Amino acid sequence: MEETTREKIVNILLKAKEPLTARKIAELLDLHSPRGEEIVYKHIPHIAKTIKRRFRGKLLLYFSPPICSNCGFKFNTIKPSKCPKCKSERILPARFVISSK
Ligand SMILES: [Zn+2]
After folding, report:
1. Distance 70 CA to ligand 1 centre (A)
2. pTM (predicted TM-score)
3. CATH number for the domain formed by residue range(s) 5-65+94-100
4. How far does the centroid of ligand 1 lie from the alpha carbon of residue 65, in Å?
5. What is the distance in A from the centroid of ligand 1 to the CA of 63?
6. Which end of the chain, C or N, has fewer beta carbons within 10 A?
7. How far apart are CA 48 and CA 23, in angstroms?
8. 9-44 per-position pLDDT tens digit
9. Predicted pLDDT at 1
10. Cα 91 to ligand 1 centre (Å)
11. Where along the chain do its domains lie?
């Protein structure tokens, strides 16, 4: 049976030794098109639910907040497009990791 993209992302995150950006996950999925990152971001909220259910809350998907590389503003969304403080679009992306509580 072929693994779905979502299942592949879950496995990549479970095996990862360090938090990964969506771009890195896309690379590991062999999704090298610019859309690859978008695809990963679309799956993330569902993956968070899958992990919680599968491990009965013992493991959870966490993310480090994206940070504006101009002013240091920390976002609370996973994929901001622009800094609300300084309007910069240079943003260090969120990193995702599956970890125990
Ligand atoms: Zn900023």
Report:
1. 5
2. 0.90
3. 1.10.10.10
4. 13
5. 19
6. N
7. 18
8. 999 999 999 999 999 999 999 988 889 999 999 999
9. 58
10. 8
11. 5-65+94-100
